[in-house]
Structure formats: structure tokens, C-alpha cells
Amino acid sequence: MLTVSNECVVCWKCIDSCPEKAIRENEKKLTAKYIIPVVEIDNDACSECGICKEICPVDAIQETDSTVAAWGEAIV
Ligand code: SF4
Ligand code: SF4
Q1: Per-domain residue ranges for the chain?
Q2: pLDDT tens track for 17-71
Q3: CATH of span 2-69
Q4: Which residues' Cβ are closer than 6 Å to ligand 1?
Q5: Distance separating alpha carbons of residues 8 and 51, to the nearest angstrom
Q6: What is the pLDDT of residue 67?
Q7: CA of 31 to the centre of ligand 2 (A)
Q8: Residue 52: which residues within 8 A CB-CB, separation 6 or more?
Q9: 33 alpha carbon – ligand 1 mean position (Å)
Q10: Residue 1, exposed/middle/buried by CB under 10 A (0-12, 13-18, 19+)?
Q11: Residue 75's pLDDT is what?
């Protein structure tokens, strides 16, 4: 499972490079007035080609263990 860390500077390199169109820009509301752009990965659409991890200039795309998310706390 790939996630985008807070290091992301929203340069769009990964969005433009993803062959599956699995990465998109979205908005995150911090306060009633303050909204920031964020980059999100649709892991269901991702083919795990690795291009985004290679191309990111700030190493913001990371592989995380999705086991707990998939199975819940029953296994921990
Ligand atoms: S690993 Fe490949 S398919 Fe998955 S989000 Fe990155 S560029 Fe797109
Ligand atoms: S390439 Fe890296 S810094 Fe640029 S938008 Fe993607 S995750 Fe953010």
C-alpha cells in the first residue's frame, strides 16, 4: 500500500507519470478558512509499477504495511 507523506510539495510529477491514473490532487480542510492541496493514491487502481516512488523529488511516497487496515485489530 502506497501513501503520500507530509513532505509532498504537490509538484504533480507523480500524477502526470502514473500509467494507471491512480494519483490525484485533492483538498484537505484544516480550518473553516484554511484549505490545502494534498495528493492521494488510489491503491485499488495502483499496479505497483513503482514509477511514482522513483520520480518523487522529496521521497514523499512510501510503502506502508496494509495488513492491519485489511484485517483489523483482530490480528494484533
Ligand atoms: S506505483 Fe505506479 S501505478 Fe501505482 S500509483 Fe505509483 S505510478 Fe501509479
Ligand atoms: S511527486 Fe512527490 S512531491 Fe510531487 S506531487 Fe507526487 S508525492 Fe508530491
Answers
A1: 2-69
A2: 999 999 999 999 999 999 999 999 999 999 999 999 999 999 999 998 877 666 7
A3: 3.30.70.20
A4: 2, 17-20, 22-23, 41, 46-52
A5: 16
A6: 73
A7: 23
A8: 2, 14, 17, 18, 23, 41, 61
A9: 32
A10: middle
A11: 60
